[in-house]
């Protein structure tokens, strides 16, 4: 199967969507105990510009469980007076969907490094057709360059896991996998990431760490 053609078809179909609805779930286990859990149910109407997000998280901070819940709604078409649609909501939405801050972007070298890493991942990616005609894309994350994994870590929702939360340190990955399910209409249905490794804490103690992250779409 031509993987480039497949990804092109998926990108073309997803680009034409007028609304995005789904949920993001991220959880981390330290040993046998859950250290944090993050949920974000989102809805974005690309025609009206209306975006909604309902966020909840639970973090274990030294035996104390810290909970956070919030609901946000904003208009991405509204100008903030500085020529940016969505104003503060522009930053908010991007922070919760993989972009931190509204500063300068990556330089040319960093972009090319990212492109090389993505092409390498494309080469290693496996595509298997399922009985229901959907496609399961899978990738061994051990084959991903460290620079790309660091960028993934930077996109994690640290602000909802505490300033001294577990995600302040990247786990040393021992194994990891990524799976993406695409339906026969070339719509992305789910993306799942599973990582196991060692987490080195400030007191030099090492713990087994498991990270599960996923996003599911409702079309």
Largest sheet: 9 strands, antiparallel
Mean pLDDT over the full residue set: 82
In whole angstroms, how far apart are the ends? 25 Å
Relative helix content: 10-25%
Please work out how many helical segments DSSP would assign: 4
Task: Give an overview of the whole structure.
- By secondary structure, this protein is an alpha+beta fold.
- It has one domain.
- Helix content is 21%, strand content 43%.
- The protein has a 9-stranded antiparallel sheet.
- The protein is globular.
- The protein starts with a helix and ends with a strand.
- About 8% of the residues have low confidence.
In short:
This protein is of the alpha+beta class. It has helices at residues 3-15, 88-95, 108-124, 146-154, and strands spanning 19-30, 33-45, 50-61, 64-75, 126-129, 135-140, 172-182, 188-200, 206-217.
Strands, helices and their partners?
Layout: H1 3-15, E1 19-30, E2 33-45, E3 50-61, E4 64-75, H2 88-95, H3 108-124, E5 126-129, E6 135-140, H4 146-154, E7 172-182, E8 188-200, E9 206-217
Antiparallel strand pairs: 1-2, 1-9, 2-3, 3-4, 5-6, 6-7, 7-8, 8-9
């Amino acid at each position: 199967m031509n993987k480039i053609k497949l990804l092109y078809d998926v990108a073309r179909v997803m680009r034409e969507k007028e609304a995005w609805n789904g949920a993001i779930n991220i959880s981390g286990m330290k040993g046998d105990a859950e250290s944090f859990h993050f949920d974000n149910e989102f809805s974005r109407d690309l025609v009206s510009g209306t975006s909604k997000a309902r966020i909840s998280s639970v973090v274990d901070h030294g035996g104390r469980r810290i909970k956070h819940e919030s609901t946000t709604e904003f208009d991405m078409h509204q100008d903030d007076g500085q020529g940016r649609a969505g104003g503060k909501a522009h930053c908010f939405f991007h922070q919760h969907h993989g972009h931190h801050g509204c500063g300068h972007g990556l330089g040319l070298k960093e972009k090319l490094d990212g492109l090389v890493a993505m092409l390498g991942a494309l080469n290693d990616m496996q595509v298997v057709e399922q009985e229901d005609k959907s496609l399961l894309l899978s990738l061994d994350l051990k084959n991903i360059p460290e620079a790309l994994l660091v960028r993934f870590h930077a996109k994690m929702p640290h602000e909802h896991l505490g300033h001294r939360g577990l995600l302040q340190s990247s786990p040393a990955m021992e194994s990891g996998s990524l799976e993406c399910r695409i339906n026969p209409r070339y719509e992305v249905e789910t993306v799942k990431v599973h990582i196991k490794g060692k987490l080195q804490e400030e007191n030099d103690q090492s713990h087994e760490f498991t990270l599960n992250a996923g996003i599911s779409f409702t079309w």
